[in-house]
Description:
The complex is a heterodimer of chains A (245) and B (417). With 245 residues, chain A is of the alpha/beta class. Chain A has one domain: 3-Layer(aba) Sandwich (Rossmann fold), CATH 3.40.50. Chain A contains nine helices and nine strands. In chain A, helix 3 crosses helix 4, helix 4 (115-126) packs parallel to helix 6 and helix 6 runs parallel beside helix 7. Chain B contains 14 helices and 17 strands. In chain B, a hairpin with a 2-residue loop joins strand 13 and strand 14 (216-217). Chain B is 52% helix and 17% strand. Chain B is of the alpha+beta class and 417 residues long. In chain B, strands 1, 3, 4, 7, 8, 9, 10, 11, 12, 16 and 17 form an eleven-stranded mixed β-sheet that branches. A two-stranded antiparallel ribbon of chain B has the order 2-15. A two-stranded antiparallel sheet of chain B has the order 5-6. Chain B has helices at 2-12, 14-46, 62-70, 82-89, 117-121, 148-154, 202-208, 225-229, 251-259, 271-311, 316-324, 329-370, 381-397, 399-411, and strands at residues 54-58, 80-81, 94-106, 109-114, 123-124, 128-129, 132-135, 143-146, 161-162, 165-166, 181-187, 197-201, 212-213, 216-217, 237-238, 240-245, 266-269. Chains A and B meet through helix 2, helix 3 and helix 4 of A and helix 1 and helix 11 of B.
Amino acid sequence: MVQSEVSAQPELIIEMKDVHFRYFGAKSGRNQRPVLHIPHWQVAAGQQLFIQGPSGCGKTTLLNLLTGMLTPGSGSICLLNENLATMSGHQRDCFRARHIGVVFQQFNLISYLSVADNIRLAAHFGNTQEKRLGKLTDSQIVALLDQLHMPASLITQRADSLSVGQQQRVAIARALINEPEILVVDEPTSALDSTASDAFMRLLLDVSRSNNSTLLFVSHDQRLAMNFDETVCLPELNRVATDAA
Amino acid sequence: MLLKVALKSLLNRRITFCLTVLSIAISIFVLLGVEHVRQEARESFGRTVSGVDLIVGARTSQLNLLLYSVFRIGNATNNISWQSYQTLSANKAVAWSIPISLGDSHRGYRVMGTSEHYFEYFRFGPQKPLEFRAGQPFSEVFDVVLGAEVARSLNYQMGQQLVLSHGLGKTSFTKHDDKPFRVVGILKPTGTPVDQTLHVSLAGIEAIHVDWQNGVQRPGLKVSAEQALERDLTPKNITAFMLGLNSKMAIFKLQRQINDFRKEPLIAILPGVALAELWQMMGSMEKILLLISVLVLLASLIGMATMLLASMRERYHEIAVLRAVGASPWFIFLLIELEAMLITLTGLALALLGLWLAISQAQDYLSDQYGLFISTDFYSSDVGVLLLLIFAATLVMALLPALNAYRRSVQVSVNNF
């Protein structure tokens, strides 16, 4: 805190340098055409970013790279000053569990587990020696659900018995349970009506702010952009098209 | 957490889970059942007689003689004359002899005519002598000593009178009801065919047949029990006899002498050698049964692997969610392996329960009909090895769906949601 005041530079939480990525054809065994080339991109801690772009511009690929589900062909992706590209698969899984909360469009939860067990699952993977969170109690889960305006009675219910809106809110609870520094959200409102969507957005922005998480929100719905600190237009960031030309 | 997820995942697919468990349970039931019955049959046969050096009977195969004289299975081809028995048992190499006379029964249980030497010299299991639960050996002509199972199942008490039947059928119309026998002794359980046998004196057998000829009662001739006692009740024939020798060195020499006996065609067998021949005959059958059981189990395990593999498509989202919250591909791999193990463990528990119930119910029938004493204690080192092999086979069979899940979990990405 003192350091940031002295330097007046915000702490970087994400930094991508000269990242190239192309999918590997599972059947053909050949590299397919390049999908992403980001020369340089950085995000300061605590920012709430709206990442937009048309379908096929590489939004999902970017999220996969940032969550460590995919590794770049070249370049570096530093999250919290740790380079994902040099980590082993297991290290990336642990890093994701500890530092990144993920919310997707739908099917966020394991249908046959209860709400509490879905949340505990994330806590189980995030509960490592490096970041010991202790045993998650029901009261902690209830408190978190309460923060997301959900009744305590839901914790014993199976995930597939909830409405889509409730499932999305439980997904936020699960994403936040390990107090992640980064929250990655991919079109979470696509399955919600406009009222539920607005309520969800308010809730998401509030809890990510109160949790001091950096929020990366991906959507093609530009109406949502006004809620965020900054909008990133991925086609401008991704130089694949320019490279090809 | 891994166990919880695996359990709930299986319960979420409870119909396929139950059917797969049932299939595995049946196959393990068959496999363990065959193995257990095989072992118990061997043990049961092996402990039936001990300390007997030679068994002598009318010439037949050594297996047939062993089966009818010791296990009360099948019938003798011919009798031995009393003179031959006396001649051979008087041989200086012979320490003791036990004559056996078979052919009558009581409510399906075989009656054995013998001498008091039977209670003195006969041994079973690890050289254990016969012991009385109540009473003593027969001393009178119409005394009978009951095997433990006979007394238990027919609820006979000391002093009770019973009538023997001619022949071996369970239901007989030719009863020796004019010469009833009195229970003077009840033996302790031995876990051998002795338990299923009524023991009477050779004189008793002779007495009930004094007015019989060639298997039927002589017309017009009726001899009462009192009148029979006044007759000479020295037996004319016996079915077989057991010999204990003074020295083991003399066994083969005496065996040769008996096999070359000129007065009538006889055969002397070593019980251990005859048993070995029996196991040799049974061996290939046992192997075939075991092979069939193993194939049935393999088919069930393949069914389980197919079920797990088929569920992968519908579990893609589940895998993706697990990966998103930080599960490694190995966690996914272990999850599938654990599910397979849980299926097999549940199947095993059901199979053991079923086997215990089945054997508990069939114990009496098997001992009555076949002289087989099958215990409900399944555990043996061989069964332990089988269980380990079942678990190993489960892990191997689950490799295919587990590797499939592993591969999918490596390929999974955000757009799989």
